[in-house]
Design brief:
This protein is mainly beta. 7% of the residues lie in helices and 42% in strands. A hairpin with a 3-residue loop joins strand 9 (100-105) and strand 10.
Amino acid sequence: MLKIVLLVLVANVCTSTGVMKNDLPIGDKAGVIYVCAGTVNPNGSIKNSYPTDCFYVTHTKPGVYEIYFSGSKPSSAPSCVVTQVYPGHFNTTGNTRDNAVVMDTDIHKFYYVTGAASGAPANREAMFHCLW
């Protein structure tokens, strides 16, 4: 529980390069956390990016999005999470199969799939966060 709280505390000191300057210990070490986050539109265009230009997208099949990292980053795979942006403001009729799933991650990219309520791949807006 303490590690999660510390991560939330240092999230407020991000620089414009996506590097968190961290004087607080994470585990037993003080360190630097790299961040790349954004929102991708259903057609694969970038809606927003933090930091600016930290990734680009390829979208060649329905529901499949590959996020390629740009800029300097550690030489290890990040931890990435993604969630679909369900249409409608605070819509309460969502279906848990109408969501997004991270399929693979490596040091250069990660890819995810978004789906319809049937579970079939479908183009959807989604947002993600990757941490190194």
